[in-house]
Automatic annotation (TrEMBL):
Subunit structure: Homodimer.
InterPro entries to which the protein is assigned, alphabetical: aa-tRNA-synt_IIb, aa-tRNA-synth_II, aa-tRNA-synth_II/BPL/LPL, Anticodon-bd, Anticodon-bd_dom_sf, Gly-tRNA_synthase/POLG2, GlyRS-like_core, tRNA-synt_gly
Native organism taxonomy: Eukaryota, Fungi, Dikarya, Basidiomycota, Agaricomycotina
Stretches with biased composition (Polar residues): 1-12
Designated name of the protein: glycine--tRNA ligase
Transmembrane segments: none
GO MF term (any one): glycine-tRNA ligase activity
Entry keywords, A to Z: Aminoacyl-tRNA synthetase, ATP-binding, Cytoplasm, Ligase, Nucleotide-binding, Protein biosynthesis, Transferase
Major location category of this protein: cytoplasm
Length: 669
């Protein structure tokens, strides 16, 4: 069932009866047909048979995306005074080696030995074990509880659908399966291989055996220049482009934090099995913010403005108990109760909630899910995903992570670039520092070509990290997880960390980074589902209730007759609207007025202007509102300026009704 999404205009009942947007069950096939017919998007290279995970946007999809991005720029970059960037897509391999992507940005895949069909190993194990547990419940006659259904729903996003068969499992096995499922994000490829062998997991459709899991890096590799000696990758995220420019950004911001950089751009991931339309693709638009903040002071100067924003939270401890019920809470309370780690992270969660609702997302189908420890990168302090519910289940559309100082530290360690903030202290202060000293020869012999990188990494550590290493060294050795993602055991004879007293006039620190990362394609598709409904009278009459803010076309201009004078008039009106910057569309086809309106309901066009013979005699024009089909009438120029105000959001439909007369001349539904 599709619930009503927030429309841009209010619909006072005195103007027209309320719209029933839930008269029909949501039918994905009908929506898909509409999106194809109205060319929102289509498979890329379709006439050549297409390629999975690559899509082209048509005029409507491109217009919608451009408007979402425009709203995003205004909501974040302009409103928050962020520093905008446009960095290269082609990325030097060294950058992605340092960030850990070359070694770690990989998934494990398995292949059907006969058909060659490919699966993501973790997704397949998850799907099969869940189906077996479901079958076990059926065999035992246990009814599925709603929350478990919902958990399945959440995971449906990434898995192949596996049918359950009512077979009772040994109690021991049920426990083992539940344990594996809780830890599914933790397993290495060989471990997944063991699980597949032990529980005889085969291709669920063909029953054919599968190969051992093979690691597959999701980045598209390339070579820069004709010699092929400079290795590069198409970036898998825009974030690294921010970090490598941090020193310049900091200088631009007069050396002060907090501040944020923001970037909109394409990213590429060679997904193993892209099966869910725009939700898992190989090339997509991201909008990413990197907010740099003092690690000792994560308060946000504007937190008070969002303190009362209510979020729907799914915290990690609830998930640890296998439950999925959410809690509604203000962000102020969530930070005060330490459910959300800090004010800055909370601020961005609230601002993101406001953004999603502003562009028309149904707030009742948006939730913030906290990452569990096994989902987070080892360096991340706290992560929340904005998940949006669609027919694919609950899908992560925005990730909000506190990435701590990881990225800047590793790039600083690798390049020696000054990716640190220096703050002049009001008073000099005497501090105790921890200083690492190495047995250079022995250290070099043990760690060989990694020795330099390891040393730099340890030199760049914050005091707290050095203290942990020192404490471990006191017990004989310390294991350090380095920027390359590997763990190195350093014995106490190779490294000493001693306290030294120094007088400081400056405080130096590497800022922490809070990163809201938006997948625009996922947001766009979810918005289409949330906006879609069908008229009560006819299931085939689909409407996209996109707010005027993001609708690709704001106003349809039509005439009820093919009379040449009327045709000239609608082109004049269109010219006037274009001058005001209103994206309008003339439909001078010979289709009936009802058909023209229906066509534009499918395009999500919020307003329609119609001229008839009275327009020639009295200079009037009618104005139709898409969702309610209510109509108003007034002088042509007044109607145009009302449309302008409606589109800008300075008045709503009630405001429009105050400026025009109500009209019931032509009923289009
Ligand atoms: N293959 C993809 N297709 C479309 N959008 C994507 C894809 N991968 C990531 N995104 C978008 O980019 C955002 C940030 O990327 P991030 O690296 O956090 O995703 P992720 O955790 O790898 O996603 P997933 O677990 O679904 O693969 C996501 O919230 C999502 O909206």
């Amino acid at each position: 069932m599709v619930s009503a999404s927030a429309a841009s205009t209010s619909h006072p009942s005195e103007l027209h009866p309320p719209v029933n947007k839930t008269a029909h069950e949501f039918d994905k096939a009908v929506l898909d047909a509409l999106l194809a017919r109205r060319f929102f998007f289509s498979p890329a290279f379709e006439i050549y048979g297409g390629v999975a995970g690559l899509y082209d946007y048509g005029p409507t999809g491109s217009g919608l995306q451009a408007n979402i991005l425009d709203a995003w720029r205004k909501h974040y970059i302009i409103e928050e005074d962020m520093l905008e960037l446009d960095t290269t897509i082609m990325t030097l391999s060294e950058v992605l080696k340092t960030s850990g992507h070359v070694d770690k940005f990989a998934d494990w895949m398995v292949k059907d030995v006969k058909t060659g069909e490919i699966f993501r190993a973790d997704h397949l194990v998850e799907a099969v074990l869940e189906a077996r547990l479901k079958g076990d419940k059926e065999a035992r006659g246990v009814k599925e509880e709603a929350p478990i259904e919902e958990a399945d729903d959440k995971k449906k996003k990434k898995k192949k659908n596996v049918k359950s068969v009512a077979v009772k499992l040994p109690d021991e096995e049920v426990k083992e399966f539940e344990y594996i499922l809780a830890k599914i994000d933790d397993y290495t490829g060989p471990q997944l291989g063991e699980i597949m062998k032990k529980y005889k997991i085969v291709n669920p459709e063909t029953n054919n055996d599968l190969t051992e899991p093979v690691e597959f890096n999701l980045m598209f590799e390339s070579a820069i220049g004709p010699t092929g000696q400079i290795k590069g990758y198409l970036r898998p995220e825009t974030a690294q482009g921010h970090f490598v420019n941090f020193a310049r950004l900091l200088e631009f911001n007069n050396g002060k934090v907090p501040f944020a950089s923001a970037q909109i751009g394409r990213s590429f991931r060679n997904e193993i099995a892209p099966r869910q339309g725009l939700l898992r693709v190989r090339e997509f638009t991201m909008a990413e913010i990197e907010h740099y903040v003092d690690p000792l002071d994560k308060v946000h100067p504007r937190f008070d403005e969002v303190r009362d924003v209510v979020l729907t939270l799914l915290p990690k401890d609830v998930q640890m108990e296998g439950r999925t019920e959410t809690t509604q809470m203000t962000v102020g309370d969530a930070v005060a109760k330490k459910i959300v780690d800090n004010e800055t992270l909370g601020y961005f969660l609230a601002r993101t909630q406001l953004f999603l609702v502003k562009i028309g997302m149904d707030a009742t189908r948006v939730r913030c899910r906290q990452h569990m420890a096994n989902e987070m990168a080892h360096y991340a302090a706290d992560c929340w995903d904005f998940e949006i519910q669609s027919s694919y289940g609950w899908i992560e559309c925005v990730g909000c992570a506190d990435r701590s100082a990881y990225d800047l530290s590793v790039h600083a360690a690798r390049t020696k670039a000054p990716l640190r903030v220096q703050q002049k202290l009001d008073e000099p202060r005497v501090v105790e520092k921890l200083v690492p000293t190495f047995d250079a020869k022995a250290f070099g012999m043990k760690f060989k070509k990694e020795a330099g990188m390891l040393k730099e990494f340890i030199f760049a550590m914050e005091k707290e990290q050095l203290q942990c290493v020192k404490d471990e060294l006191a017990k004989g050795s310390s294991t350090v997880q380095a920027p390359d993602g590997n763990k190195y055991e350093i014995s106490s004879d190779l490294l000493k960390i001693e306290p030294t007293t120094v007088t400081e006039h400056m405080r130096e620190f590497i800022p922490n980074v809070i990163e809201p990362s938006f997948g625009i394609g996922r947001i766009l598709y979810s918005l289409l589902e949330h906006s879609y409904w069908a008229r009560e009278q006819d299931k085939a009459r689909g409407v996209l209730s996109l707010p005027a803010l993001v609708a690709p076309i704001k106003c349809l201009i039509v005439t009820i007759s093919q009379d040449p004078a009327l045709r000239t008039l609608i082109h004049d009106i269109s010219r006037k609207m274009r001058k005001l910057g209103i994206a309008s569309r003339v439909d001078d086809s010979s289709a009936s007025i009802g058909k023209k309106y229906a066509r534009n309901d499918e395009l999500g066009t919020p307003f329609g202007c119609t001229v008839d013979f009275a327009s020639l005699q009295k200079g009037t024009m009618t104005l139709r509102e898409r969702d309610s089909t209510a109509q108003l009438i007034g002088p042509i120029d007044t109607v145009i300026s009302v449309v302008d105000e409606l589109v800008k959001g300075t008045i709503d439909w009630k405001g429009a009704a105050g400026k025009l007369e109500s009209y019931s001349g032509v009923q289009d539904v």
